[in-house]
Amino acid sequence: MGKNEDLFDDTNDNVFESLQRSATEIFEEIAETLAGPAESLRDGTEFDPVTLPRDLYAHANAQTEWWYYTGHGETAEGERFGFELVFFKRRTDLDKLSMIPMRILGNPIYFAHFALTDLDLESFFYAHRQSSNG
Q1: What is the pLDDT of residue 80?
Q2: Three-point CA angle 69, 75, 77, nearest 5°
Q3: Angle at CA 94, nearest 5°, toward 88 and 98?
Q4: Closest C-alpha to 93, from 34, 41, 20, 54
Q5: What pLDDT is stored for residue 5 in this prediction?
Q6: How many CB atoms lie within 10 A of CB 103?
Q7: Which fold is adopted by the domain 39-132?
């Protein structure tokens, strides 16, 4: 590779980095206008021991939380099954999709997952849902 080719590559890299930086700043300004400023996701209790009833429900500034229910059951006919139901809450204040702040799309974003295992048929079924901005 010649000296001119190296200079061309370096110049292109600098231009693309500058464009990416500018686009990131523009998207951040749009996110701040539409969704407000990003929060730190710290409320001072993140290292505290579990305290009830405070920790029985969602925490406003926690980035990721989940609640799950699992168990086994049996129908009146004797068919056995296992189940799992999980709810996730994800604050997106600090998350980005490439250079786009996720809080533009939703904050928080909720996910739900349900799974059912039929022990007698040795089969597994599941479904997912998500919700953002209500």
Answers
A1: 94
A2: 165
A3: 100
A4: 41
A5: 67
A6: 24
A7: AttH-like fold (2.40.370)
